[in-house]
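re the bet — no i am not wrong, look at it urself. input seq straight from the record:
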Amino acid sequence: MDPNYAAGLVWLRRDLRASDNAALYHALKSCRQVHCVFVFDKAILDDLPWRDRRVEFIRESVVELAAALPEGLITLHGDAAEEVPRLAQALGAQAVFANHDYEPDAIARDDLVRARLGDAGIALHTFKDQVIFERDEVLTQAGQPYSVFTPYSRAWLAKLDAFYLRPYPVEKYAARLAPRPEKYRRAVPTLRELGFEASNLAELQIPSGASGAARLLTAFRERMDRYDTDRDAPARNGPSYLGVHLRFGTVSIRELVALARSRSGSGAATWLKELVWREFYFQVLANFPHVGRGESFRPEYDRIRWEEGAEADRLFAAWCEGRTGYPLVDAAMAQINRTGYMHNRLRMVTASFLCKDLGIDWRWGERYFAQQLNDYDLSANNGGWQWASSSGCDAQPWFRIFNPVTQSERFDPDGEFILHYLPQLAGLPRKALHAPWTAGADYPLPIVDHAAAREKTLRRYAVVKNGDPHD
């Protein structure tokens, strides 16, 4: 089939890889010549702190991607909604190709770009790439979106077959990549040129780019069979650590699902289930957009009266800074603050503690995690916080309240994780590591008594069951 366009432009965003990339494949197949661009978007970057691991990760991944594309990569620094239409016109492109981005701000940006391109007679084509199934591809028999994970997961797995996992053969049409015009033969901007400084990314040895994702995946293959038993222990090397790579598309979701599906055993099956959870939250955000506006999935939970004022501010600051007096919570907060990563079990523990021990609105925690997490994704972050606060779809029951001490004893029994982040507790007996106040340790006392906080939370949440007595 002959190409439809003489020239096209691929706008790379959350898909920083040269292989198995839907937009790149369709552009190469549809155009006689193809240019590729990545925009360091000021509309996003200008709101970030001057030292941000994510920006450094993106930049390093873009440098690698530029080297992987035979003709290089055009990189720009500006407002993407202005730069992309301007570049497309300058290159004489008849069409721009990109992969779908599902967050509300990104959808609004893409709508604006589509309109501006349309005014110039240029088409915008977008494709599914970062998920296996999109918004309306897995529905109930009544044609409605799922709000409970287990039946969604069954339907998702039943629909999955080899067709959805086929990689896009970019290499087949790579000869159509066009040389960059002299005007755009600039190197990728440095962090300083972007207005940032180096973070501790290198010190943490977080590998970037497609090569970094490949190294992590190779290592995870060796321990995937133990994933179901090791994933809940924060001191063990259990997770894949691929979250940030999925977030920025330095690895293909199709490759990961194909790998999980090709392996037998409960480890691979459990990991695949976690990948399905990721897609579940994507479709929740798409089908129930009010959750992306800061509203509870279940509106009745917006009647809850959270703590406010100076006392709430004090408790929240202690939580953020890891000064709650509960070592597992404090160690988990130290982990996210120092590394931008938090183990999944600890995300649940710390979120439950904020909402159900401290009585603080889950949205405060959601915003804090959004600032700190390397792998921050609106859909998963919102879904996780609403799950922990019981306000989301298929969330834990409102009366289920994690005990931070028993969670510590169960999932970090020897205190290995705690001691890694709180070495000042090294002299305590093992059992006292989970509740140092019982041994008179020189450590902050708990900022709340869990038993008393639990009773207060049950009363706080009773408004959901019984209605607001003040109405």
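see?? The radius of gyration is 24 Å. told u. also The CA atoms of residues 245 and 251 lie 6 Å apart. so pay up
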